[in-house]
Specification:
Helix content: 10-25%
Radius of gyration: 15 Å
Number of strands: 8
Strand order of the largest sheet: 1-5-4-3-2-8-7-6
Strand content: 35-45%
Oligomer: single chain
Structural class: alpha+beta
Length: about 140
């Protein structure tokens, strides 16, 4: 679900907290560069001809992906039970329903393996499935 957070009211913030839980202290959002996106996300973000960077915030029950585009602050809220991820070639791909987002580090570095491990752990604990660090099921 997408939200306009340019000037959010209390109800929107409470709705995000209900869906994803609170932001956890000590976990800063990780900044990524968008390598590719599904058509709906691409249309929302490609206002200037260039995809903006985004921040991925790990919350108790899901991911909150923050975007800034054309003076707007947008967010994609994805509960862990709904997201599927792939990590290969140093890139991170997020899939939820019809939406897809392929992310990479800003300088072309590999995505931090500890970050990936933490993400897999949260998805596994939320869905009750056991995943290894490479995304497969043992």
């Amino acid at each position: 679900m997408f939200y306009d957070l340019t000037s959010p009211d209390r109800g929107v913030l409470e709705q995000l907290s209900d869906i994803l839980g609170k932001a956890e202290a000590g976990l800063d959002p990780t900044v990524f560069r968008i390598a590719s996106a599904s058509s709906q996300i691409y249309q929302m973000l490609d206002i200037t001809g260039q995809l903006p960077p985004c921040q991925v915030e790990l919350r108790e029950r899901g991911l909150l992906v923050h975007f800034r585009s054309g003076g707007q602050s947008l967010a994609w809220a994805v509960p862990y039970w709904q997201v599927s991820i792939q990590h290969n070639d140093g890139k991170l791909s997020l899939f939820a329903g019809q939406h897809q987002l392929r992310l990479e580090q800003p300088q072309g570095e590999r995505v931090d393996r500890l970050y990936i491990a933490r993400l897999y752990e949260r998805i596994a604990s939320s869905t009750g499935q056991d995943h290894d660090i490479y995304g497969g099921q043992p």
